[in-house]
Write a structure and sequence with these properties.
It is a single chain. By secondary structure, this protein is of the alpha+beta class. It folds into 2 domains: 90 residues, no CATH class; 92 residues, no CATH class. It has a 4-stranded mixed beta sheet, with helices on one face. Helix 1 crosses helix 5, helix 2 crosses helix 3 and helix 3 packs across helix 4. It comes from Sinobacterium norvegicum. Its EC number is 1.14.-.-.
């Protein structure tokens, strides 16, 4: 994998001008490069989390192909991962690629629900449309309405118990930059908002 610290010349065609990944990289790195030795990095291939090692002295959250949504998704996984997980390649999580059985998909959705709830908060803070992802295009995706309910319930629980410091800092910083409001008000969310 080749990770770049500088954005390429071409910007993906799906960006609207406000939602471009260099802004996310800058905002994230201002918050966490020094404090938690972690940087958001544009990648050329699949997303990946790489802890600091002998070749690179800082942790890297690598997102795919310059897509704003990919960056938000990878940030959400980083926000959910605890300290020990952030010392492991891809947080030490198992991952069965696209093509999962119904049972494997159900296990995936139980784990993924919390991360996508955080992603929803981050997207709202960026005034960016959030879409749930069952991430199983060639397998047995199951009932997406059930997964939407998992994400919504995870969001409700997260807001009821309070977000962690990393989520809070990102939500506040993104909200200020993008002019978003009510990101942490549970009454502004409903399951019907999920695509």
């Amino acid at each position: 994998m080749l990770a770049q610290s500088q954005p390429p010349q071409a910007v993906p065609a799906d960006l609207d001008g406000r939602h471009n990944y260099p802004v996310l990289i800058s905002l994230f790195n201002q918050l966490f490069a020094a404090r938690l030795n972690t940087r958001l990095v544009l990648g050329d291939h699949e997303p990946l989390y790489l802890p600091a090692d002998d070749d690179c002295g800082y942790h890297r959250i690598i997102f795919a192909h310059g897509f704003f949504a990919s960056a938000l998704h990878e940030l959400a996984h980083w926000c959910v991962a605890g300290e020990a997980r952030r010392q492991q390649l891809d947080y030490g999580y198992w991952y069965i690629p696209d093509g999962r059985t119904a049972a494997q998909q159900q296990a995936f959705e139980q784990v993924e629900g919390r991360a996508q709830a955080v992603e929803w908060l981050l997207a709202r803070a960026c005034d960016f449309r959030f879409q749930v992802s069952v991430d199983n295009l060639t397998g047995e995706a199951g009932d997406s309405s059930a997964f939407k309910q998992i994400v919504f319930s995870s969001l409700q629980q997260l807001l009821a118990t309070g977000v962690n410091e990393r989520v809070g800092a990102l939500v506040a910083t993104f909200g200020q930059h993008f002019g978003a409001e009510n990101m942490l008000d549970v009454t502004t969310y409903c399951v019907e908002q999920l695509d």
